[in-house]
Design goal:
This protein has 98 residues and is an alpha+beta fold. It has four helices and four strands. The protein has a four-stranded antiparallel sheet.
Amino acid sequence: MSITVNIYYTGKNGSARAFAEEMTSSGLVDKIRKEDGNQKYEYFFPMDDPETVLLIDRWRDQAAIDFHHKTEIMKEIAALREKYHLKMKVERYLKESE
């Protein structure tokens, strides 16, 4: 069973997009994509809302997410969220094995 987490980051004056750009340029995105169990980590920009960025984050299972949440990377992400004063809305989807 894979788990997809959609995270909507919302800020002001382009801060959500700047967050996603710094996540990428700092190498954090590449590190996350290399973590065991990560299947997808991609940012998207809604056409009708320039102050929001959508992250689609998919993991093999809950154990992989739990491990990810205990890494130093999560502290770095939290610090960047704080730096850019972002609000988050989270949606979670489960996919049963086929």
